[in-house]
Design a protein that fits this description.
The chain has 14 helices and no strands. The chain is an all-alpha fold. Helix 1 packs parallel to helix 6 and helix 3 packs across helix 4.
Amino acid sequence: MTLAAIELACRAATVALLLVLAASLFSGFRNVVAGRLAIAFAFGSAAHAASYSIGAPVQTSAWHAPLIALSTGNVVVFWLFTRALFDDEFCLRWRHGAVWALVAAFSFVNCLWIAPGGNLRLAVIATNLISLGFIALAVVQTIASWPADLVERRRRVRVFIVAAAAVYGGLNALLQVFVGGSGGGDIANTFNAAVLAIVVAAIACAMMRVDGADLFPVAAEPAPAIAPRQPAAVEDAADRKLIDALMRLMADERIYRQESITIGVLAGRLKIPEYRLRRLINQRLGYRNFNAFLNNHRIEEAKAALADPAQAEVPVITIAMDAGFQSLGPFNRAFKAITGVTPTEYRRLKANAA
């Protein structure tokens, strides 16, 4: 079998696998933001598998240019996918679509006008520097958000998916920067197609090994009530004792007010391994994210302050900062997500009811 035949077989297998994966995601998770982005990422990756080559040709055909544009724009989808994957409350905005359209349009213009105009090297470097930038954003998002994720199985799978895609995309972008325009040869393109097929197969296999609802929750988790309680599911005496100790730290010491509080710090205060505290908050108290757990306590304190007539003149931002928030924007969003109204509206409603 020739190198060209092997390359074609790898490309075809990759496209087929990605389309099957997209169909499966559409069937179960098309109404979830992360699911829709995963579908878009699968289609963009299929365009990449069909169009990508090491070393760009000077002249690009009319049918090839749209595929390359979709492939380049897919790094924006990848970045958005990682954001949605690690934040159950992430929402798509029109500006996200605008960023994708700008990147795809720039790539399209590169293919049809800039590169053929004698600026092939510049076009290749510019396009791949954009790709590296969005891949870097995705990696930073993964690193920043991963510690707060409380669902063990999706923590492992998410990191694997992001790492595999980022490593492949990053290495290929770097390779294009250094050899773009010089032609990669049959061996390089065959190797690239084979590696992409392996990466996609590994990601698909990893996704099959975890409950889809862990990766793509059907709905954002409701904020569990934090009134003093003993969860009915807690049967183990050790867990009950730990939950009591945790709630004392929250209610008595208000540890959630600390600026640098992390799940590791909290586990240290309770003198237990971090993984055990993560499992406790997730499986016993019903939270999927550590920040949601902290914010629920912060909002409860803020609600009490806003409803207190003695604090009617205290600015909302002061109440937010006292409760542990670092700025007004995140406080307003978290407060409305939990109560359905803004802090100012909540204060007014409580004043009218008094």
